[in-house]
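Input chain follows. Return structure tokens only.
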Amino acid sequence: MRYLILLISLIFLVSCSSGRSTVHVVDYQVKPIDMEPAKEAKSLKESLEHEDYKEVKDDFDIKELGESFSGTVVVKHPNGKIKLIRKLVNGKVVKSESFDENGIISYSTHINEDLIHLKNYKNGVISTENISHKNLQIDKEYNDIGELDYIIVYMEGGKICCKDFENGNLLEEYYYHISKGELILNGTYMKFYPKGGPIKLEGYYKNGKKDGVFITRGPDGKTIDTIVYKDDIPVE
């Protein structure tokens, strides 16, 4: 498990009022709207080739468009490259994309009434992702080539699910709960073979200790070993 990285970020979540271990760039003019997330195959930038849009200045306030405005507004860099695209419905931004001076995407935002979806990019490759849906929050981090590195899911009641990846392949899945400001392993633990296949190791943690049956399987799915634990101690 990547205890150092994950525990530092999770403890930071508990101790800070912001509840974030990763800094996300947000378009603060984005407002919630009562609609389902748009399932668009194309990005906003690609859609501009086939849609009309309104070009505005960098300091333009979208409130000037009025509550009935639906459409796309674009801000450009001094060199003419697109800097920011916002899609609005009834005067509210439902989606936005931001680009650097070379036209490379830096972040995107998608929001509706109960869903906020943020993506940050580094050199045009996704680096972090944050999804907030009602009482659920999901943070994802990617490596330099856009493969998943880890996922942290924050749930109600102080329950946290962590998933570790290597080269985009799932390696481990485990659960914490927050008790008196501390993070304690509590729940199902699974370890996977790097290239898929059966679960390599499966067991359960109770209040930070192994509890119950831990099963080790080979690549063919056959059981190699079975150990029963009680309070972290093997039971004969």
